[in-house]
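Appendix C reproduces, verbatim, an entry submitted by the partner laboratory led by Prof. M.T., so that reviewers can inspect both the input and the predicted structure.
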Amino acid sequence: MPIYLPIAEVSVDALWIFGLGWIVGILSGMFGVGGGFLITPLLIFSGIPSTVAVATATNQIVASSISGLFAHLRRRNVDLRMGTVLMVGGLFGAAIGVWIFNWMRSMGQIDLLISLSYVVLLGTVGTMMFIESTRALLRTRSGVVPPRKRHNWVHSLPLKMKFRVSGLYISVIPPALVGTGVGVLSGIMGVGGGFIMVPAMIYLLGMPTKVVVGTSLFQIIFVTAFTTMLHATTSYSVDMALALMLILGGVVGAQIGTRIGMRLRAEQLRILMALLVLLVALQLALGLVLEPRELYSLEVVRGR
């Protein structure tokens, strides 16, 4: 059933958009990511203008993350103290990211910025995650016990705080910086930032994998909600009809994804996520080098 989206000024199939939200909701529950790294490119591939895709995708991320978070809270797999530190940094970063988004949009370069950001970040993170997860899986199968983690530079920083759920006593500076970086990405790319935050929480902060997913979702909820509000009040590019269809699918999918994630080993989850990230990066990279069907496009800038 086709439906007209007033802000995007295009007609799309409602069932297709619901299906996108459902798939991304499953990924949110499985991997602890908001799913924006997938939903935003898929919306763009479906004919939604990139500015509307970025601003609207964060609505779906909020809904699917809330649904997934409740499932993890029931299992007590959420470090609320760590999540709060990440959230504070994320709110600050989101404000910076939305400012950059609007500045590049006024210069007419926002489409290029979004595509390049996805290709570079997804390609880098996906490759690193795939290599590390493959090594961990091979060690597990061979029965080799990895060496005990040593303290790194993170543990020597000041302003330390005890995170009981994660079993850590580290400085609040690294998680705050991670949150800030993720917030900037959320504002520019319409992502929850889980594909950056999850590896950072595991490999940089040393958090247990079982706690990482729920804690990531906790931070994503507040940062993406704040990002949505900023986009709605500054660029006027949030399409609520599109957001509603994505939300309905995302809430249902997140519950399914959480159950699937509980049945898989941590190494398997990370390999699957890495492959998804690399696939999306490859598709966007091809879009940058292949000649488009329409060499020129016009965009109506609202709120001026």
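The chain is about 70% helix and 5% strand. Additional entries are available on request from the coordinating office.
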